[in-house]
Amino acid sequence: MARAASETSEPREIAATLDLALRIGELLLSSGAGASDVSAAMGNVARACGIRGCTADVTFTRLTMSQQSSAEQPALIQFRDVRYRDLDYGHLTAVDHLLADLASGELDREGAAARLNRITSTGHSRPRWSVSLSLGVMGVGIGLVLGGDWLVILIAALAAVMVEQLQRQMGRRRLPAFYQQVAGGLLATLLTVAVAATPADASPSLIISSSIVLLLAGVNFLGAVQDALTGFPVTAGARILEAFLATAGIVAGVSGGLEVAKLFGVDLGAVDPGAYSVADPLTMVVGGAIASAAFAGACYAPLRSLAPIGLVAALAIGAYAIAIDRGIGIAWSSALAALLLGLLSYPTAVRARIPALVVVAAGIAPLLPGLSIYRGLTLLATEAADGLLAMVTAAAIAIALSSGAILGEYLAQPIRREARRLEGRLAGPRLVGMHRVRLARRRRSTKVDTSTNRLD
After folding, report:
1. In angstroms, rounded to a whole number, what is the distance separating the alpha carbons of residues 316 and 406?
2. Consecutive H or E run containing 100
3. pLDDT digits over 203-223, tens only?
4. How many angstroms separate the CA atoms of 109 and 113, rounded?
5. Is 327 helix (H, G, I), strand (E, B) or coil?
6. How far is the C-alpha of 270 from the C-alpha of 245, rounded, in Å?
7. Are the beta carbons of 418 and 437 closer than 8 angstroms?
8. Residue 360 and residue 122: Cα distance in Å, rounded?
9. Cα(135)–Cα(345) distance, rounded to whole angstroms?
10. CB neighbour class for 393 (10 Å; exposed up to 12, middle 13-18, buried from 19)
11. C-alpha angle with apex 111: 25 to 52, nearest 5 degrees?
12. What single-letter DSSP state applies at residue 32?
């Protein structure tokens, strides 16, 4: 009887470990982590809990994990679907700390599961109005980066708050993200139409560009290119498709707003999609720092990390502005800024006790990869030749930003003592999660000798 009990408890222990790894992977993937980071984190959780022979598979909507103790035994397989995606860098940071404690042996599986339950059940760390306020501040920063005047900056901040409130109400009614993007683009364009109907002297193209930046899915391309570079093409294709679909929703909303302007006889002139003026380098640096810190605040990043994130973004934007001023192409300028961002994000993340993903995702936002994609899609619908050229340029900028940031992570890994062992065999940039985990010894089951009533 004791032997039978021990044999049944082992599959239960394995199943509990796989469930913990899948739940951690679900939170990481929904928070924007790359598939390689998620797969490595799931495998490291199993290894830290003393389970051998585990394999993890990650797709865009499903996580799979299996374990087979020996060739004679059937494999134990568990699945978990990723249905909702909500950026919460506070939860992401808490899970990153959980992984570190689990790897160091400070937590066992039961303690890690209990802490994960507290993380996922406590809700967001800050009130919802702080998100609206942060997005409004981000609109101010984006307006500065794009070289807008005080009116453009004010409208960009107002549009950010109004669009966030609208999309939140639509999200409560479970409307798909595409329709939320259409509504956001329509609202931003209607604000531009309202300004154009007044005597105010402002560029409608610049107002539209500043107002829709918050809707653009440029940050998603970071995870997509990382997945493509690290051997997860299916997940990369799904993320790219989601980003293009979200951008297409904005195009539909903006075009709808322009039709409303024609219907009411409001003359907007020749609207240049994705247009922006070149601000002076100091203004771009200040605006980039404000936009990155505000974006991190809107995603519930810890307050202690906002100032370091703004500083790193300011340095990256400064490098970008200097490169553009020296006549370097926009793609190479973007790659240089992203490389610097990746290099600085690793030590910054260590100092601020946050994952490097938070620094990279927030720092890349003011570099405007999504605005180029929006411009390409819009021109593709009106002028095929110009649209095709714009799409190639947009793809070059997106790949330059993503690959530059990831290359910076590769080069910055040996900075930490934990990563010194990986200098000769870099397995991939770890934007979140631990790098290496030793296999924990599992507790052996206690067998009872029923003939003598003694413990062996």
Report:
1. 14
2. helix 89-104
3. 788 888 888 877 876 667 767
4. 6
5. coil
6. 25
7. no
8. 26
9. 22
10. middle
11. 55
12. T
Q: Which two tokens stand for residue 6?
A: 């021990």
pLDDT in tens, 273-314: 666 666 788 998 999 999 999 999 999 999 999 999 999 999
Please write the tens of the pLDDT for every residue from 140-171: 998 888 888 888 889 889 998 999 899 889 98
User: Rounded CA gap, 101 and 433, in Å?
Assistant: 11
Q: Would you say the C-alpha torsion 8, 13, 18, 24 has a positive or negative sign? A: positive
Alpha carbon separation from 197 to 52, 184, 208, 266 (Å, rounded)? 68, 20, 15, 6
Which ranges of 69-202 would DSSP assign to H, the alpha helix?
Answer: 89-104, 109-121, 128-145, 150-172, 177-196
User: CA-CA distance, 60 to 33, in Å (whole number)?
Assistant: 11
For residues 141 and 367, is the Cβ–Cβ distance under 8 A? no
99 with 112: CB under 8 angstroms? Answer: no
Rounded Cα distance between 40 and 291, Å, is 31
Q: Indicate the burial class of 251 (C-beta count within 10 angstroms; 0-12, 13-18, 19 or more).
A: buried
- Structure token digits, residue 273: 């999609």
pLDDT in tens, 4-25: 333 334 788 889 999 999 999 9
45: left (phi over 0), alpha (psi -120 to 50) or beta: alpha
CA distance linking residue 295 with residue 293, whole number of Å: 5
208 conformational bin, left if phi > 0, alpha if psi -120 to 50, beta if neither: alpha
